[in-house]
Amino acid sequence: MTTTIPYKSYLEPHGKYRGLLDWLTSTDHKRIGLMYMYAIGVFFMIGVLLGLLMRIELFSPGETIMGPQTYNGIFTVHGVIMIFMVVIPGLSAVFGNLFMPIMIGAKDVAFPKLNLFSWYIFICGAILAVLSQFTGNGPPDTGWTFYAPYSTQTGTNVIMAVTAAFVLGFSSILTGLNFIVTIHRMRAPGMTWFKMPLFPWALYSTAWIQLLATPIVGITLLMLIAERLFKIGFFDPALGGDPILFQHLFWIYSHPAVYVMILPAMGVITEIIPTFCQRKVFGYKAIALSSIAIAGVGYLVWGHHMFTSGMSFTARWVFSFLTFVVAVPSAIKVFSWVATMYKGSIALKTPFLYSVAFIFLFMIGGLTGLSLGSLATDVHVHDTAYVVAHFHYIIFGGMGFAFFAALHYWFPKMYGKMYNQRIADIAWLINFIGFNILYFPQFVLGLQGMPRRYFDYLPQFETGEILSTIGGFILFAGLIMMITNLINGYRKGEKALDNPWGGSTLEWTIPSPPPMENFDTPPVVSNEPYDYE
Amino acid sequence: MSDVAIKHDEHRDDIGAKLGMWLFIFTELLLFGGLFLVYAVYRNIYPEDFHLGALQLNVTLGTLNTIVLLVSSMTVAMSITAIQKGNSKLSMRLVLLTLLLACVFLVNKYFEWGAKFEHDLYPGSDLVLQFKRGSIIFFGLYFFMTGLHMFHVIVGMVVLMVLWFKLKNTTINKDDHVLLENGGLYWHLVDLIWIFLFPLLYLVT
Lengths: 533, 205
Prior knowledge:
heterodimer; A: mainly alpha; two-stranded antiparallel sheet; B: Four Helix Bundle (Hemerythrin (Met), subunit A); about 80% helix
């Protein structure tokens, strides 16, 4: 005899408290994912506004709306917020939490309480980061990289910002740990490693990077704090230290952190493309293992940030070589995505459009990364706007567009409602055009010699800078349109089907929005994922 | 078959819990790994200053503390065996003994650091700032590494106290003692790190 369990969505109240407290005390992975999303959404908009302020300042040569010190503060805050509070937690904390357990057929993550605790740590770190802007002797002006020896000597509020980064790193470690154990221990019966969907595969590789790399930046930031407080001199040449060592330690984490951002993004794209082509993903194993390869090799390429800082020639060519090697698994993924589309029945829906935009922008970002990774060209474009354009193409064009793709893909599942797809498509087009007008001119400016992190510039760069600022406003308009459309969809969108896109992974087999514990009966998996034939 | 839904709090996976703890310990080792890397770099640059610096440290107290921590690792391991055999009273006593040994470690450390401060041997003091650069780094590393380790000792003590209370109200019992095992693992980590710190700082002469 079986009894059916009455359906109750995870969005409905279920704890002993009501309202906000019901959410703040919930250990449900989907709710925690949503709480991450709301927090990250707010930080993202703050970061966007700061970025827009910089673009306005650069609209014309000379001081436009702010002086150099304010500008230094703003690009530091923009970097700290966007890197540590938006793109690093972004996809894994939001969509990893929301959908990874469902996709592997589990009821929750392995340690639900730890999961909620990670969210609280994240919020604490975020509060510290925001406070560092308003307390002490002015916002930190070191850039998000906190390079010594300047960061050990500037009078601004570096300690608090560094503590914030440390705390946020701790949250990232715990999320990674949770995901690794979940994927090892909680896959549904029959779901072998190679029957697991590719988004969880990407999260698994990401989690290992979070676990292996973050402690290094943790100890580095602690040393920086100790140096400022107690004059220990780890990185101060006058006290016997070496500032280059700080750069090494910092990039040992912060380069792998780039893969923490991009691997889940690739995972999302790998989910979306087979669904909208109704075709089995091409090269399943190659995609799964290339995630692991990127995580492994990506750990060993940090030196390419330091070609001009002073390293032996041997070290430089080895790091350059490894940088080229890490491009191979990324390219394997791109080939597989394109091959999946071949002869598929493609539906040009919003998530697919964002995914195609991702591939386009990621290719530009990735290939310009190779010109930065080769020794001779890097000397020319090091610390110019070219670098800024490159990493925005990777981080925003890559991770950001993948985030929007995921948002539009899983929105009907998350809320059980559908947004207006026509407006979403228009917003996509505006975002795509605005993005390219904003960042592409910076490649050209960088090649011409426009340095990064300067509030002023020579008159010959004016055309490019004006173009870039216009692009910034177009992108901003697109973002507002996209967010408004999603909010409207949530408030008064029509009811979404359980499987609106015809997806094949487990999250589409349950009602929208999912019930509290995902599955009434634990699913048993026998097919490979993306089985459309 | 009645209700098939399983509540979260009924979910129990000891292997998963231990896997999580091992991963966490791994991150702690990497945290100190960063410091060992920095140590290696500077020892390579300033071998003589490190030799002279190590001569200033109190090897007797260091040895004593090493023995204290090793014994405490043993007592915490014994407490796990005791609970596996169902003797929760003995297990609680052994956890208390571990806590006591941790206190002995901290008291020793207090006297050791105290003596250094008395002789103006601390980072940023006027005396240390006049030293050669390698010695400044050595004392910086000494205080930073042992300080961070001491912080871990204190965290470990808090964990042990929580475990004691959980033993007392039988949350940890013969059939469910993975928490005690994980706490014990953490305490072994504290011990393990010290076993590396001791030769690197005290015995490199």
